[in-house]
Amino acid sequence: MSIGQRSTPSDSLYTDDYKEASYWLEDVLDFTVPNAVLPVSADVVVIGSGYTGLHAAIQTAAAGRATVIIDSGEVGQGCSSRNGGQIDTSIKPSVQQLARKLGLIKAKAIRQEGINALKWIEEYVKDETIDCHFERNGLYHAAHTPLHYEQMSRDAEQLNREEGFEEAYSVPRSDQRTELGSDAYYGGVVFPKHAAIHAAKYHQGLVKKALNLGVSFVPHCPANSIIRHNKTGDGQFSIQTAKGTIQARNVMIATNGYTTNLTPWFQQRVIPIGSYVIATEALPTELMNELFPSHRVASDSCKVIYYYRASPDRKRILFGGRVSANETNPLVSGPRLHHQMCRIFPQLRDTRISHSWTGTVAYTFDEMPHTGVHNGLHYAMGFCGSGVSMSSYLGMRAGQKIVGNVEGITPLDNLPFPTKPLYTGKPWFLPAAVSYYAWKDKIEYTRAARKYP
Ligand SMILES: Cc1cc2nc3c(=O)[nH]c(=O)nc-3n(C[C@H](O)[C@H](O)[C@H](O)COP(=O)(O)OP(=O)(O)OC[C@H]3O[C@@H](n4cnc5c(N)ncnc54)[C@H](O)[C@@H]3O)c2cc1C
């Protein structure tokens, strides 16, 4: 994948080699995906070349199915080369919340699937020897008010009791410097089982694996329409693309936050939300050791969350969040993220930005990932910003289902996938919601800082 265009902002906030591109891409520049010509037919056509599409394709190709991945742009141009590389258990609703809608047994099975996804991705990168800096160093989830600290500590105890996986524990503010070089928080909770990854190296490793299995990649090939000819069993589909028409027995929709009116039913069910990230210039080792003494990834309890971490080589900080009510561009989001980063780490006031970028995640109305088959189309999407392991895992499960492998069945299959009246895929309500929650977060942490300096 090529790296984004270099901008030359004069501001001293930026390094001379500042780029409006994902920092992760710097480490995968030596590899170009061989482009294929769109064939007239394939057993399986996968639309979308991120983790979801790749893992589905790896399964179908390994089972001997001729598999083609198409993408609107370059291979991996979506979230999968630009995320924060933090890996959690992905399922946001608690057992209790899920049980109210789906019953306790199903709720527990779904929560367990989040744990399975985290365990599975670790085993996968190990078994396939994918060099992507997978590290299980844990997450420090920091509380932006004392009240949040108390609530988070109670939740962590409950989680440990009920699920027995996380082994989460609280860290009071007095000990916080063992986790984070910041006094902006009021303690936090460590989730020692959470992990980190190099987003683009992981993606590249999957591309290589897929290529070895014979998967063809056709980039710059947006699918414009899908016609289903055979309405029973395996469909016979015609997919019209910018590069011609391809026939397929099975189609996998792996478009997540970039889902368009190609598939209106899905577009009405996912909420595209921009997330923004900056990377800093390389920092002195002593400063990195002060800021990230435990080398865990970090996030906070703000409703409009900030997430950050040291780069795998511990030279830079990657700092992400949502800093605009409306969608914006990296030149606008960069300084705002820098401002927030310095609020949390005043030590970084003179630190410059080397990279600023954005990507679009897919939220859902029930905050759940979704997978299954709709009108003959296999799909996995709606990872709600926590998709590194879950998109991989559900992509893999979808690929297994396509080839008729019962191991592909998951408790997440074909859950009710809610939409809202009049919602067509344009989240008009988002700016108001983001403004309100960002305002509320600010009031809360400003008050806390005044009361407990
Ligand atoms: C800034 C940012 C930070 C994130 N941080 C984290 C994190 O720390 N931890 C975590 O777990 N998750 C994180 N995520 C989310 C995670 O990256 C995603 O959930 C995951 O990568 C989704 O993978 P995917 O393959 O489903 O989608 P994507 O990687 O987004 O791929 C979808 C692809 O579909 C293609 N496409 C769309 N429509 C068409 C069409 N009509 N024809 C052909 N191609 C099409 C797009 O071009 C795109 O390449 C983050 C996301 C972003 C943007």
The shape is globular
N-to-C terminal Cα separation, in Å? 47 Å
Give the number of DSSP strands.
Answer: 19
Average pLDDT metric: 95
Rg on CA atoms, Å: 22 Å
Number of helices: 10
Give the strand order of the largest sheet, numbering strands 1, 2, ... along the chain. Answer: 1-17-13-16-15-14-5-7-6
Order of helices and strands: EEHEEHHEHEEEHEEEEHEHEEEHEEEHH
Largest sheet: 9 strands, mixed
Search tags:
nine-stranded mixed sheet; 31% helix; globular; binds flavin-adenine dinucleotide; eight-stranded mixed sheet; disordered N terminus; 19 strands
What does this structure look like?
Helix content is about 30%, strand content about 20%. By secondary structure, it is α/β, with parallel strands linked by helices. Helix 1 links the parallel strand 2 and strand 3. The radius of gyration is 22 Å and the shape is globular. It is built from 10 helices and 19 strands. The structure holds flavin-adenine dinucleotide. The site of flavin-adenine dinucleotide (FAD) has 44 residues, from helix 1, strand 4, strand 13, strand 17 and helix 9. The site of flavin-adenine dinucleotide has 44 residues, from helix 1, strand 4, strand 13, strand 17 and helix 9.
